[in-house]
Amino acid sequence: MAGIFLALALAIGLASPALAVDAGKASGTATIDGIATPLTFAVETRKENLFDEKKRDTVVVLTDKALGATRPDDEVELSLRARRGELLVLALRIDGDQLVNVTVSHKGLNGLVILPGAWFQFSSSKSGGTLLLAKRDYQGHSYAVDAAFAAAPYVVPRPNPAPAPSSTDVKPTPAPAPATTSTVDRKQATTLLVQALMQSDEHRALEIIKLGVDPNGRDQSGIPVLNWAVMMCQPPVVKALIDAKADLKYERAPGMTILTEAGACPEAARILRSAGAR
Known about the structure:
By secondary structure, the protein is an alpha+beta fold. 27% of the residues lie in helices and 27% in strands.
């Protein structure tokens, strides 16, 4: 009997370190295309529920490096940084105690990968949680996760104060370079914009447009982003794209004008008419 208790104690002792994670930290790995990357940080934020605007989902963001000045709810900036290889990002959307999905952003990825929550073994408590995914192939990549986390609220890092210059070091400050969107990957921004529209995330869509998205960009099926904004009935996004010189004459089929498609969204139709759409 003593041997049984000893075996149980050893088993518990071996399992417990996976959960013994400090607040704001993660442990374990995310393996993408056979390359394992240690997950180190875990921060928490909240977003509007996908189906009920009165509810808020918890979003836990796991990364291999500290976020720095990038907020965990800024999917656009996280995705762009991940694509450049600066971060590996897993964003867990949790409704109550149910894992809805996991958004993955990684180096070289065109857009976002959203993996269904049902694929994962997931557990959570007030002190943390675990996430496990056996190898899955999805959209040309393979994914596997084995991690524990204890998410903490995001805290904006304080900048280090610059040392006061001596009188001999003071030099005229050059004028800042004018703002430019020349470094924005417009194809990537188009993909992100369509995803935001599909998720009815108006705020995110407007932020992407500010990055310098092509107002006449199209998804993989050839549907322009303006048509997506109309179909999802997001008038502020429609106006922003029109202000960015979106084409109002495109017809997805003969006679199917952008104004025709706006029939179910009167406010978008009003904006289109004011801009000269027929």
